[in-house]
């Protein structure tokens, strides 16, 4: 928190005001500090800054005021002591793992993770002696059974993508802590406007700021939120030395994005709920996956953990066999005039995707089946357009 932050601010106010620092010029909007290094008053001050005996900026790979304002604001929003910003969401996950883990350590992760996160665990961390076991995220029993003496980290995304399975963060944190394990939650889909994993015992929170925190599809960014000492001792040295630093320009764009986070998440999830209800009542739709619907298997848990169902809605079209289902799903996608056919999410522009042939296209048919990704499945990431215009798109494609 900066000196001006008010401890009682609600999320909407935090998202606009927390962490702001003003220069003597008195600018109202935060300044963008495009500088790679910082000057010192004297040789003695330079020596003190380098030795760490005096606080202050040295070099932008270590600190930059625009980046620090973003970090402070996100830490306040997530109810964590501290936050470290990174160049992307993947940089956040990589940096956190490099900081917290050693060769010989073991991770347990939920199966339904962002594709690149799976690649990082399976293809890259494994080369450095870190092994990952993937489990059915909603089964607490599966997590417990997978625990080994060298398990150091739980890694979870909730709600999951694209089937919106909701995992009980508190129950998972309790299990982790019983075994001296850290519970790391990727809070990308909800953002702190809808879910604060820290309130449910999580130890560390990962963000792809590229998604809802920016919210307008402009820049890449990431963050790790958590306890100050742990982040400073374990993760900061990797960030400073390896250099996956967030740029000042991107930090500034993200600060502007955060100002509208609360109102965007509310409007986007209101629209998503209306669309999910409309889809559920449509005769050509077999099933809708949306935590805000009473029909969602973990609806009660979702409403305890999240402020709303979020902005991701997935649904299966009815059809006769795989080929027919795929043709019908593609037909919905190809009829969309307003929605963008792209796999990104978290934008003001609604996106529509066919997971089985895009994001999950490289999985074997068996692995895809196990993940529950059917050929009739369509994923929507609802943006800020008029809900009626989005429904009109779907109506044409569903016939
Ligand atoms: C996009 C995404 C990431 C990776 O973020 P980048 O900013 O693209 O590196 C990680 N986790 C989730 C859930 C994501 O959607």
From TrEMBL:
What is an example of a Pfam family matching this protein?
A: Cys_Met_Meta_PP
Query: Does the keyword Transmembrane helix belong to this entry?
Result: no
Which pathway does the protein contribute to?
Amino-acid biosynthesis; L-methionine biosynthesis via de novo pathway; L-homocysteine from O-succinyl-L-homoserine: step 1/1
Q: Which reaction does it catalyse?
A: O-succinyl-L-homoserine + hydrogen sulfide = L-homocysteine + succinate
What Gene3D superfamilies does the record point to?
Aspartate Aminotransferase, domain 1, Type I PLP-dependent aspartate aminotransferase-like (Major domain)
Q: What is its EC number?
A: 2.5.1.-
- Extract the GO molecular function terms from the UniProt entry: lyase activity
Descriptive protein name: O-succinylhomoserine sulfhydrylase
Q: Which organism is it from?
A: Limnobacter humi
The gene it comes from is metZ
């Amino acid at each position: 928190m900066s000196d001006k932050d008010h401890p009682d601010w609600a999320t909407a106010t935090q998202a606009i005001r927390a962490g702001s620092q003003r220069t003597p010029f008195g600018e109202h909007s935060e300044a963008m500090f495009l500088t790679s290094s910082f000057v010192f008053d004297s040789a003695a001050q330079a020596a003190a800054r380098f030795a760490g005996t005096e606080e202050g900026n040295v070099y932008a790979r270590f600190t930059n005021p625009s980046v620090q304002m973003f970090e402070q604001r996100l830490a306040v929003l997530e109810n964590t002591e501290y936050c470290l910003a990174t160049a992307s969401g993947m940089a956040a996950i990589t940096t956190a793992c490099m900081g917290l883990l050693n060769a010989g350590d073991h991770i347990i992760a939920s199966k339904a993770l962002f594709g690149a996160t799976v690649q990082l665990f399976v293809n890259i961390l494994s080369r450095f002696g870190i092994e990952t076991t993937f489990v059915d995220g909603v089964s607490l029993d599966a997590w417990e059974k997978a625990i080994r003496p060298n398990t150091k980290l739980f890694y979870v995304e909730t709600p999951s993508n694209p089937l919106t399975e909701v995992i009980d963060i508190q129950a998972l944190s309790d299990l982790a802590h019983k075994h001296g394990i850290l519970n790391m939650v990727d809070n990308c889909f909800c953002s702190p406007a809808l879910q604060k994993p820290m309130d449910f015992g999580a130890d560390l929170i990962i963000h792809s700021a590229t998604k809802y925190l920016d919210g307008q599809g402009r820049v890449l960014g990431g963050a790790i939120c958590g306890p100050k000492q742990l982040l400073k001792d374990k993760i900061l040295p990797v960030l400073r030395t390896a250099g996956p630093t967030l740029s000042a320009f991107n930090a500034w764009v993200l600060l502007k994005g955060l100002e509208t986070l609360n109102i965007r998440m509310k409007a986007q999830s209101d629209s998503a709920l209306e669309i999910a209800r409309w889809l559920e009542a449509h005769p050509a739709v077999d099933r809708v996956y949306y935590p805000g619907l009473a029909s969602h298997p973990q609806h009660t848990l979702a409403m305890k953990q999240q402020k709303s169902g979020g902005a991701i809605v997935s649904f299966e079209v009815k059809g006769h066999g795989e080929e027919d289902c795929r043709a019908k799903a593609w037909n919905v996608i190809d009829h969309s005039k307003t929605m963008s056919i792209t796999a990104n999410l978290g934008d003001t522009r609604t996106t529509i995707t066919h997971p089985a042939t895009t994001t999950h296209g490289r999985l074997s048919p068996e692995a895809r089946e196990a993940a529950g990704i059917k050929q009739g499945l369509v994923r929507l990431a609802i943006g800020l357009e008029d809900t009626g215009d989005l429904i009109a798109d779907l109506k044409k494609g569903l016939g």
